[in-house]
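Section 4.2 – Deliverable D4.2 (structural model, holo form)

The reporting period included a commitment to supply a predicted holo structure for the target in complex with beta-D-glucopyranose. Inputs used:
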Amino acid sequence: MKLRTTILAALAFCMSAAAQQSNPLLRNEEKITEIIKGMTLEEKVNMLHGKNMFSSAGIERLGIADIEYADGPFGIREEMEPHSWTPLKWETDKATFFPTGSALAATWSREMAYEYGKAMAIEARLRGKDMILGSAMNIQRIPTGGRTYEYLSEDPILSGELAVGYTLGAQDNEAAVCLKHYALNNQENMRGYVNVNITERAMREIYLTPFEMAVKRANAYGVMAAYNKVWGHWISENPLLQNQILRNEWGFKGIIISDWGGTHSTVGAAIGGLDVEMPGNTFMGQALIDSVKSGAVPMEVIDAKVRNLLRVRFAIPAVPKDVANTQITSQPKTQAIAYNVASKSIVMLKNDGGLLPISKKMKNILVVGDNATCTMAQGGVGAGVKTLYEVTPLEGLQKALKGKAKIKYVKGYEPKPRRRWGEKKDPDLTEWNKNVLTLREEAVATAKDADIILFIGGDNREVETEGSDRKDIDLPFYQNELVEAIAAVNPKVVSVMVAGAPVDLRIINKVSSSLVYSWFNGSEGGNALADVLTGKVSPSGKLPFTLPMKLEDSPAYALGVYPQKSETQQADVFVGLVDNGQNSKRKMEQKADADYTEGIMVGYRWFVSKDVAPMYPFGYGLSYVPFRYADAKAELKGTNIEVTFNITNQGRMTADEVAQVYVGRPDSKVERPKYELKGFERITLKAGETKTISINIPVEQLRHWNEFQHTWNIEKGKAVIHIGSSSVDLPLQTEIEL
Ligand code: BGC
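Output (structure tokens):
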């Protein structure tokens, strides 16, 4: 059977013109012109800054509602007081905790991204929200990045495809997205003031491409300007990024809002393209009125911003106030989507002894590890979800194995106490240090008699957090020592890493027979994990980032350009937001440069081109069934390269596979990675079934940015097409001449 490439996959860059024409943002232009004509300057400027912490004003006189923003990106944030971060403690605002960004990306599924956006929109609407502050989609440049768990991938095409899906899913269901953080917010340390030095080529090919795709192909209605600078200029007042690239080149018609506290000037921001200062009015309130009156900011600039806001306002019908918040935010249909995403995201990295799926003969199961019972919806700095419920791994396993096996749980390790927000002193660690050994000894003693040991460890939401990067990627809290000690008495160890970002697996990989990555996987995470471990579902997630052998192998570390040696590091920008600005002035005076010396060699591009062996490569993930790839063909059809091949499920159960297509340009005149991801497809195959897969790669995706002519070029010549199941397992190869 010949599979038609999914509709979403077939949407090429070149179709963006069609997408623009049907842009719902442009359906009310005349009406908007009339409204603007009748507005005073004060009314206009009133719309251009935060009214509350999470809203900007409409036009009361005309009954035009405020725009309500919902902090995503992995669940609708709880309600807070209008001008502070203090929760209102409602009952109805309990939302679904969706798998975080890296988990969604591990599905490699446009359909799942669409469903995810749709579910977020359904919950946003129930809460009366118009715009979801997501997808969070910065490229995962460094493995230590504090928000890696929120972001999608280290690859622009994978990130972009999923952001397109998320955007269409949300906006088809009446919630706008706000793509964030545009752009180059690839580290959390010093994010409030760091200045990115980068080639235009790397900026466009790697870091801007996902945003470009979501704007051009999905008509994203909102974009959030990042905190940082590029080439010495704040993003939120950057005419190149905002006016020229986003609006003029990509045809963006929606609103650009600042990240919270990320506006730095009045005239600069107004002229440089920012539409809304969030969450206050320091720069785009009275100061903006004065700047218009003095002639520093032309009225047309203000009118254009009001137009952008009204476009969004009319494209998203406001939820009547008496309808919002009348039901609990989390709903069975959105919970089902959270489950589907989670169950397709889990990555099996190793299954050497065939311990998985857990056999029916295993009657005494020992579960070890704090993450077996730890919830991940909240923690650390930044957006979390006040979730209606969260099934932990232990609960999921207990439910799935009820009446089939005996499960014993021991903690094995516990997180090291940390200094909390507002605390002056580091906590006393005496008790914790004592517990390390006691808990380990208890686990080892119990492990001896178990038929199988499921170690559930990894990071948690305090370890991976907004506002700061991790110092390293080591498994915290002496987990390596624990698993080594357990494996010494009973080698039947399956280790599950609950984490949103890479961790150093060198030790745990050695001492575990099976190894699984299970992400911060949302309200249904425990159920999904249990279904994969027990074999109800075959694992089908693929790594959205490289798991390096060691941190120093990853490009920015290998080149010594991260971490930056800055002596001026101060509190995160967030501190300024919650202490009434006492720290924010100081931060603006600070300087720190992030040199993106690795250029386009980000993530696996570096590893495959420099022959550095990773621990597990980008795109990698095993299944309970073997797949056979065969019969590759590539043909130029109009503006697309059509790649076809066969995949056979050689196992005994239905399973999903994510087929990946990488393209190399061996005769290129410019520096290029050995090959780059250009297409992928998730396929479901029954036992023994063969399907012919057809993947269309727009020739335009083979473009590169010409630094001298400042334009995109597509080189003629040979394109080598590699097909397979990860960035290094590429059994099929074919060529095409362009
Ligand atoms: C984060 C954004 C978030 C905003 C509002 C900022 O600190 O960077 O991602 O949407 O806060 O909570």
